Structure formats: C-alpha cells, structure tokens
Amino acid sequence: MSFNLSCIIREAGVSTPDKPVAYHVGGTLTFRELDEQSDRLAAGLHDAGVVPGNAVGLQLPNLAEFLVAYFGILKAGAVVVPMNVLLKAPEVEFYLANSGATAFITFSMFADEAVKGAQHAGVDKVYLVGATELPDGVRPFSDLVAKPSGPVFVPRSPTDTAVIIYTSGTTGTPKGAELTHFQLYMNSDIPGRIFGVQDDDIVVVALPLFHIFGLSSILNIVVRFGGTMVLLPRFESTAVLQSIVKYRATIFEGVPTMYVDLLSQPDFDDYDLSSLRVAISGGAAIPAEVLEQFERRVGVVILEGYGLSETASTATFNQSAAERKAYSVGKPIWGTEVAIWDGDNEILPAGKENVGEIVIRGYNIMKGYHGRPDADEETFTGEWFHTGDLGYIDDEGFLFIVDRKKQLIIRGGYNVYPREIEEVLYTHPAVFEAAVLGMPDPRLGEEVMAFVSLRAGAEAEPEEIIAFVKERVAAYKYPRRVEIRDVLPKGPTGKILKVDLKRELTESL
Questions:
Q1: How far is the C-alpha of 369 from the C-alpha of 377, rounded, in Å?
Q2: pLDDT value at 87 more than 80
Q3: pTM value?
C-alpha cells in the first residue's frame, strides 16, 4: 500500500484547475499552477540529487513559493522540515544537522544567517527565494522550477515521515516531531469536515505556515477541500481586517494575541466583517474577556480547539457553534482519545475538581521525536502521549485547559494556575496583555508575579493592578509583584513567550 500526502494538490489540480488556491503578494495562484509548479520543483530536487526519504529544510514566510516547495518536496518523496524565518545561524545549523537535511530553501531577507547555518551544517544545496544577488554557492529558487516536467509523484508508505516539525524549545532543545503522510492527511480530512470547510471558503492566513497550526490546520485543510487562502507574509491587524473586507473572507484562524490586537484597533468597528462565518482560536487558551468581546462586536462565534506539534495539530475541537461550550477546547476529534491522568498515571474522573495531565492517543500522534528515543521514553506511556498540559473533562466530555504542567505555581503548598490569574488581569480596563509566572521565594518556594502591557493611551500603576486582582481571587493567588512592559515577547505565531520572561526574571535575581 502506498500513499503520499501530496495527492491532495494533485486531486484539486484535476477537479478545480482554474480556481485560486491562494491570493498572495505577487498575485493569484491557481490549483493547476500549484500542481504544475510543485511537479517542477520535485523534478528539480531529483536532478539536484535529493532522493526519497531525504529531509529538505523549508524556511519561508507565507508566500506562494512556500506552497510550491512544500508540495514539491512531498511529491519528490522527501521530508519537509519547516523552519521559523527568524532563526539565527546556530539554530539553522541545528535544525538542518539534526534532521539530516540534504537541501535547504530559504528567503533572501534571512540569507545571512540562513546561509551561514547551512554551511556549518554541511548542507551545500541551498536555494534562495527573492534574491537579486546570490552568496557564493547559493542558487536561485527559480532553478528548481525552471525545467518543464510531467507529473511527479513518488509513492510512499502511509507510515513514512512526511514532515519533521520542531517543537518551540520552551522546555529545552527543540525536538523534531515526525509526522507521517497518513497522520497529516487524516488531520486535514477529519478536522476539515468538523470545521465544515467548503470549496467556496476563503481563509485569511496570518499564522505562519512553518508552524503546525498554519501548516496542518489551514494549508492542508484548505487544499484538501478546495478552498482559497489569502496569504499574509506576517500578522498585522490592519492587513488582516482589510483582507477580510477585500476578499469577503469566510474564516479567520488565529492565536489569542491576534484577537487581542484586532480588537485594539481604534477603527475595528468600521470594518465590514459580515462575510465571516466562523473564527477559530488555538495555540493557547483565549481569555474569556477577549472571546466575549470579539463575538459581541463581530457577531461571529470563536470556536476553540487544542493540539500540539506532536498531535499533527488538532486533537480536540468545539465542533459547531450550536454545540460548542464557551471556554472549553471542545471534545476529542474522531479517532482520538483524551484522558486526564494523575501523577501515578491513573485516570481521573470527570469534574472541575479533578485537574490532571492531559494524555492523548490516536492516529494523529507522532511517530516519535527524530533521533531522540530518550525523549520518546519520557513522553509516551504505551500509546498514550503525555502533553505536559493540565486540564479536566466535564461530565459532558468537554476538555478544559487549566495550564501548562511546568508553569504551575506552587505557593506555600497551594497550587496557583497562571491562566486563572491572567483571566482576571484581562478584565482590567487598562490591561492589554498579561503573563503570570512563578518567581523563586525563600519562604514560600514560589511567589506569583505578573507581566502586563497596557492598552494604547491607558495608564495604571502596578499597585493598582495588584489591588484589582486581590479583590477577585483568594489571598494566596494574587500577584505580589506586577511589572509593566511596553510589549511582551512573542513567538512566531504571536504566543506570549513565558520562557523568555522566566529567563529574564531568573537572571535578574
């Protein structure tokens, strides 16, 4: 039995050849053009010596070339290694060397760091998108697609690795999660049916495609169901709002900070967003205040889901506006099991009082971490994957995320969940963003601390914010220290980087 994930573009190229698969900064790309150009790229990789099973680094923003390269690499039978565009040379070197990449496709804007990293990793097949001048030994991306080609489709086993996607590294060195052709197909087909994605849907894509959320929950799903994407090279509130209006977009998917930024636009209510039929949030738990405000002002329901790189993106989802439960990340998708375990790996019963670690098993769980059997041993108990997240399941089967297991604050023996305190902070009229974490304390073990940024034009003092929270939570929960920042550090998807704040805090003590 053979199966290659790239069949989704081949099928769409046949059934709806002239339909746009993407609107992008350079114009419009149709399904036929994407199918043909990715054939050319697959042939170009073959001519360059890339053989089935080889890994190919892919470091591009949301451009048409990303789609061409992604499907071209898959068609060649090779393994896609999506890479953050902001990586520095040592990080590029690590990703390429760790994955065993034999070729690398990157962007001119990042060429200095990218090429240096590739050289240190010993990768000599480097292709650059958008370059007018080429560093020594680097070839233009156009070389890969220059030669006419017939259909290219290298058969693969359903269990062969299609993508190695690296974790964010918030708990140490990034680990490469190996995702198979079958897993990624199923996690486009099943969630796509749950989302109700149709061929007339238009999705604004501000999430980076090199991230599992953008790659699996947008790109693969849209192509699988013949929809259309509006590619934005990076998230910018005005560009998102203008794109929804211009293209009459029907779906927007983002992380919570994106919704915060959109709502903070002074002219937000002036945009006609009536074409949207659904909004989707993932990547982190969305604050209740943000969810309620967006739904009230736009008239569109935000459906929350939950997943990780290791679960090929989606593991649970609120399956419809009618059935959704606010503040929950939904129920397990078809073919996936979710349970809550205590510290002894025993299943906890339903109920808000039974918080434990979220564990998952099903078709969407990765093969394992590339070259890291030690990490696999730590992460798996049989077929169950330990997420490192804390949550509970209610009596109707809905999953609620409480926090990251490693971000739990233990203050004088009491458990403090940062997300609970952040929810309160987001209700303060001056607070724009918030991150709560534990700081070392010689008496209590840990003390609660909050970092916040303020809304444009708003004023507040740390003491005032502390008092605000103190009035609303138990005495052991409120932050004893609040630091106000102009901005909070964020990752490529817009998720607040608590690990950076924790590092700063540790170094300052």
A1: 10
A2: yes
A3: 0.87
